[in-house]
Every structure is written in structure tokens, then in C-alpha cells.
Design a protein that fits this description.
The protein has 435 residues and is mainly alpha-helical. It has one domain: Up-down Bundle (Growth Hormone, Chain: A). The protein contains 18 helices and no strands. The protein is globular.
């Protein structure tokens, strides 16, 4: 087996550039779904249930995409066909979802239509997102993987910044940020339209610039023959997974549950803390929704800056744990910042945790998987450590909200505790070099 060649910066960049557009779509979804469904009339105690669909689709779709793409060889590539189809579906759904309240449907039908669109949106985003991680696993050598995933992290955060600020920007240039009851404002609708256009353009760029290896070239650089790639089922793969796969997965459990509660409740938490209202029909609530998007963008900027700091840590595990602790502190500070500009501080800290969550798990896991084969299937299964905790957290969200006093801002304390637990679990990870 030959050693995978070093790739130039621009080849590493091109492998992941489409991730910029995919992340715009993901940012629009994560920052606006609660706002959209609250505007459509959802009760806060039921709000977390709407968030079951995105991770549920992820846990179903990504292993399927990973396994099928392991066995797919076409003249267009191995992973790229799934990337392109996923992006195309996402574009169509992004144009439909924010219009759920504008189609003249009955209230119950609006919710059903919105949920269907949300399910399709997250399915397509997952289908488009996973191939980028697989491309790095297929074509980048172990020495360059940290750099490749750092580039992916940068593009992820840059796309997030753009997606998060779109509603604020479109309101600033004059689009309406209020609408009749049950209708999503134009500032949000046009954010989804523009995000869809950027998504498809970025994916077209990656498709035109990246040439995947053919089966013969793939076998030269990867240790498992194609026939063996097709033989194992998911249960067998999980039984044979390295211990690092499970230990990083435990950290992931606490981290993604924490962020699920942020995405679900932070608009109401910021509106309640700064503007003193949680009424989605009020202008103040919609202003809070826009400002929360800006805060998400600040979180992404903080994540980019912290990603530059992370390689300076001599110990990767220490960097991971410290980042999660800083993120947990940021969550805990949100209810104590009654000024909208003071909210910048906790979101910068949250960005530190987010930076580590984006880059480090896949570095640990893909290094541990060298020699195991089935890289796409394993990464699809590893996505379960992202999706499963979100599903569990979503199922428990309404009950936890009731237990802590019905204040959405208090859910930020829950997120802070979960990230701290994730930091403790980092100590269980053993790096490959120490085995």
C-alpha cells in the first residue's frame, strides 16, 4: 500500500469548499427553526419535539450515504454524486420551508407542512454534508488530516457567519421583520432564498474542481480491498470499532445535547433576558430573533479565532477539554447579561467549545480508523454520536423546562453543565500514538 501523497493547500481547500454553502443552509436552519415554529404558533414546552426530526434524519441518512458511497464507483466520483443530489434537494426545500405560514393552510396543516419540510431539509443537508468528511478520509494522509479538518472548520464557521446574519442584514436594508400572525417575516424568507443560491454555487465549484480516485487508485492508498469493503454490516463494524470511536462518542453525547438546547431555546432566552418578552407576535421578539443570529455569527467568529489557538496546545486532549469548559461557562453567563451587547461575551466563549467540537472528534476517530477500511460507513455511524444525543435531549427538553421553572433562559444552565461533563469525559480518550 502506498502512502497518500501530500496535497497542496488549494487542493485541500477545494475538497471542502462546498462545505461553506452547506453550512450556510445549516446555520439558517439551526438559528431560525425555533423562531419559525414559534411564529407559526408552537408552544415553548413542545418546541424541543420539533428538533427531533433533524438528528433523526441524520442518524438514518448518514450511515446509509456512507455505506452506499463506499460501494459506489461512477465517472462522477464516489462521494460527489451524493453530495450533489443532497444539495439540489436542500435548495428546493429552502425555498418552501419559510413559506409554510403564507400558503393559506389551516393551523394544523401549517405545522404538518413545516415539519415535512424540516424533515426533507435536514435529510438533504445531511446527505450533502457527510461526503465532505468522507473525501478527507479517502484522499488526505494522516499527517495532513488535522489541517484538512481545520480548513473545513474555517469554511464551516465562515458559512455560519453569513447564514446567521442574513435576517439581521435583510432587515437593515429594508425588508420587513414583522408579518401577520402566523406568517414568517420577509427578512427570514429571503435569507433562505439567498442561502439556497449560494449553496448550489459552492457545491458546483467543488464538483468542478475535485477529481476523486478511481477504484485502482483508491486501492493503492487504502489498506482494505473493495471486496472486503462490501462484506461487513453495521453491527459488525460497531463490534470491531476501535475504543477511541466510543470514547469520543461519549464526549459527543454531552456536547451535542448542550447545543441542541441552545438552538431550541436561545432565541427565547435572549428575548426574555434582554427584551423582557417571549411573545413571538411582538416586534421585540423578532428583533431578538435577528440579534440572536448576530450572536450566532459572533460565536462563529470566536470559533474561527479559537481554532487558530488550538494547535498551540501541546496536548490535544487538554485543548479539547479546556475548550468545552470555556463553552460551558459561556452558556451559564447568558441569563446574566441583560444588555444585548454584553451577550457578545458568552457567545465568544461558546465559540471556543464549538471550534473543538468541529475539528477534534474527527481527527481522533479517522486516525484511529486507519487500517479498518469502511471509512465512509464508519463516519456515517459516528454521526450517530451527533444525532442520538440530540434526539434524547429533544425528547427530554419539555420536561426539563418544566422542572426548572418554565424559563427558557434557565435551559442555558443545563447546556453549561452538559459541556462541563463532556470536558470530564475527554480524559477517557487515548490517542492512537499511546496505544
Amino acid at each position: 500500500m502506498n502512502t497518500k501523497p501530500d496535497l497542496s493547500f488549494w487542493k485541500l481547500w477545494n475538497l471542502s469548499f462546498g462545505f461553506f454553502g452547506v453550512q450556510i443552509a445549516y446555520a439558517l436552519q439551526s438559528s431560525n427553526i425555533s423562531r419559525i415554529f414559534r411564529t407559526l404558533g408552537a408552544d415553548p414546552h413542545d418546541l424541543s419535539y420539533f428538533w427531533i426530526l433533524p438528528p433523526l434524519m441524520g442518524i438514518l441518512v448518514q450511515p446509509i450515504v456512507g455505506t452506499l458511497s463506499d460501494r459506489t464507483w461512477t465517472r462522477f466520483g464516489r462521494r460527489i454524486p451524493y453530495l450533489f443530489v443532497g444539495a439540489a434537494v436542500a435548495v428546493a426545500v429552502m425555498c418552501l420551508l419559510p413559506n409554510a405560514g403564507s400558503l393559506g393552510l389551516a393551523a394544523s396543516s401549517v405545522m404538518i407542512f413545516g415539519l415535512l419540510m424540516l424533515m426533507l431539509l435536514d435529510t438533504s443537508i445531511n446527505m450533502a454534508m457527510q461526503p465532505f468528511k468522507m473525501l478527507v478520509g479517502d484522499m488526505v494522509n494522516e499527517k495532513q488530516k488535522a489541517k484538512a479538518y481545520s480548513i473545513q472548520s474555517f469554511l464551516c464557521n465562515a458559512g455560519s457567519v453569513m447564514g446567521f446574519v442574513f435576517p439581521f442584514f435583510f432587515t437593515w436594508i429594508g425588508l420587513k421583520n414583522v408579518a401577520p400572525e402566523g406568517v414568517v417575516p420577509d427578512s427570514v424568507i429571503w435569507s433562505f432564498y439567498v442561502g439556497a443560491a449560494i449553496l448550489i454555487l459552492c457545491v458546483i465549484y467543488t464538483v468542478s474542481k475535485v477529481r476523486e480516485w478511481n477504484p485502482q487508485e483508491y486501492r493503492q492508498y487504502n489498506p482494505v480491498e473493495e471486496s472486503k469493503e462490501e462484506s461487513a454490516n453495521w453491527f459488525t463494524l460497531l463490534q470491531n470499532a476501535p475504543s477511541t470511536f466510543w470514547k469520543v462518542g461519549l464526549v459527543q453525547f454531552f456536547c451535542w445535547a448542550a447545543f441542541l438546547y441552545m438552538w431550541t431555546y436561545v432565541v427565547d432566552a435572549v428575548s426574555e433576558t434582554v427584551w423582557g418578552t417571549t411573545d413571538p407576535a411582538s416586534e421585540s421578539y423578532q428583533i431578538a430573533g435577528n440579534w440572536t443570529g448576530v450572536l450566532y455569527a459572533i460565536q462563529a467568529v470566536g470559533s474561527v479565532c479559537w481554532a487558530v489557538v488550538l494547535p498551540r496546545f501541546k496536548n490535544t486532549k487538554v485543548a479539547y477539554a479546556v475548550s468545552l469548559l470555556l463553552g460551558g461557562l459561556g452558556f451559564a453567563l447568558i441569563p446574566f447579561c441583560p444588555d444585548q451587547y454584553l451577550q457578545i461575551v458568552p457567545f465568544l466563549l461558546i465559540g471556543c467549545g464549538w471550534a473543538a467540537m468541529l475539528a477534534m472528534p474527527f481527527t481522533f476517530v479517522t486516525n484511529a480508523l486507519q487500517g479498518y477500511g469502511h471509512m465512509g460507513a464508519y463516519l456515517g455511524l459516528f454521526n450517530g454520536t451527533i444525532c442520538l444525543p440530540q434526539i434524547i435531549a429533544a425528547l427530554c427538553g419539555g420536561s426539563i423546562l418544566s422542572l426548572i421553572g418554565h424559563h427558557q433562559s434557565s435551559m442555558m444552565f443545563v447546556s453549561g453543565v452538559l459541556l462541563a461533563l463532556g470536558a470530564v469525559c475527554v480524559t477517557f480518550i487515548r490517542e492512537k500514538s499511546k496505544k
